[in-house]
């Protein structure tokens, strides 16, 4: 199986030349297991009752298209991973993050912070209610726009066991112009990052549903 992850250095993605390692990686002398023994672990008490519903975290409803995003976290053998902490963050419907560094001229939504989390259930399944994010400019190159996406972080039982990736939406015309998406070498691996519209998940007259599974070792990591 080939590595599905993007290379550390991918010149079309402008920040990678600044952060890609110039020398081979060095494993700590004490080994990775020693880090895991003292790293944080996560439990049910860390979660709030509205952490998985980004549309109900404020006094009013956010603007935009309400969606449901759900799927399973699976190990490399296809087995469900229960009890994994899944976090998401995203722009609002206008394509703007709630972050001081995001100053592009799109409106902020006082009823949408754009962050959520949940624990996978016994079947490794997660579920979020949110707003479909908007595309946004990012100045990587002339007229650069990111496709609509949701960032995902999946933790294991220790702080060092973490996968960060992105979920995209089907049929986005910006895929061909996005060097982050295109940095993944294999087309089939890129397709693993695209969710699918699912009418069984969709709630009539309320929210469209999208299914997206995360397979550890196969779903590409974020560039």
UniProtKB/TrEMBL annotation:
Superkingdom per UniProt: Bacteria
Gene3D superfamilies in UniProt: Aromatic compound dioxygenase
Keywords: Dioxygenase, Oxidoreductase
Keyword match S-adenosyl-L-methionine: no
Domain Intradiol ring-cleavage dioxygenases: residue ranges: 69-97
Family of this protein: Belongs to the intradiol ring-cleavage dioxygenase family.
NCBIfam families documented for this protein: protocat_beta
Name under which the protein is recorded: Protocatechuate 3,4-dioxygenase subunit beta
